Amino acid sequence: MGKILFWAVLIIGVLFVTRLLANQAANRRPKQDHQETSRPKSTETLGKPEEMVRCGKCGVYMPRSDAIKKDEQFWCSTEHAQTDQKTRS
User: Fold this and answer.
1) To bridge 74 with a disulfide, which of 27, 38, 64, 67 should be the other Cys (CB 3.0-4.6 Å)?
2) Pairing relationship of beta strands 68-70 and 73-75 according to DSSP bridges
3) Is 69 inside any structural domain?
């Protein structure tokens, strides 16, 4: 029983020491913040929220700038706009 306890304490001690050394090595390295380069720093760079509109045929919502406006209605693609125009004729 004493040998098992000795080895358990020894293994835990070695793990603890290696963790301390790894933390010290990480603190010595210059910090490189990769998040600053991939993410905008504030919401100002994201742009303004845009109104969402619904396609008159399939019902998909999309930003107003991506939609096609025809006959006071919005469409997700030219095919849907043309299909609706054919069904009205």
Assistant:
1) 67
2) antiparallel
3) yes
For residue 41, being part of any structural domain is answered with no
The first and second tokens of residue 62, run together, are: 């999309």
Res. 42: pLDDT tops 80: no
Q: Which residues on adjacent β-strands are paired with residue 54?
A: 61
In the chain, how many domains are there?
2
pLDDT of residue 64 exceeding 70: yes
Separation CA 88–CA 69 (nearest Å) = 16
What are the C-alpha distances in Å from 42 to residues 32, 39, 45, 46, 53? 19, 9, 6, 8, 26
Cα gap 66→54, rounded to integer Å = 11
pTM above 0.90, yes or no: no
Q: Are 80 and 52 part of one and the same domain?
A: yes
The parent domain of residue 53 ranges over 46-88
